[in-house]
Write a structure and sequence with these properties.
single chain, globular, alpha+beta, 8 helices, five-stranded mixed barrel, 6 strands, 230 residues
Length: 230
Amino acid sequence: MTMSETTTMCERDDWGAPASIPAFHVASMFRRADPESYDDARREFFIQVNLNPFRTRSEEFHQRMEDAFDQWFTFDYHLDQLGLTPFAVASAYARDENETVGERGYAELCETSRTNFASWFWVREANAAESRIVLEDVINGGIYGVRDFATAAAFDGARGGAVVVRIARVRGAWRMVGDPLFQARKPDSARFRLHLASCLRTWDPKFIDLVRLLFGCDPHLKLDLKDMRW
């Protein structure tokens, strides 16, 4: 794969956050530089997701599917039998070709690669002023205080609801990696949380399973997602 004609966008936000590479840029890099791997991954993704043919295909729907593919390809797709991911390749390329990244930025990217995971989270609390949202992982257990202004603002004051998102721990803090795949403030009862956790823990879905649940044809989770709303 030749990277000489590609550009890897390595970003830092106004808070001086760790180095990051958006999944969109990683996917775009491989689409240009290694179209064979990219096309193979895209076929595998849509076969596994098994899109629901009766779902309305709005522009928002297509954008969500593209975001979901970019994220899955970047962090979960393996380029070889050793588990090399496109994000790992893009991180090394950014270190070698982007002088603003350096070894410190590369170490931060490696932290993202090592610690990131996606799950279905229950919202314990959210505070927009602090740009902080507390999430309970209903699949694997555990509670995470996550820094993310947009999601904290959307759920400000909420105690309940759901977020399907990928998070990573970098420089001592949990942060969201990409936009949430799904958000809903209701239902928000403790009883519903227990029901949701029971269903998901029995199944133990991966990120692509959650994509199929939300956008494809999957009978595993016996919940009416239409009841989950803002």
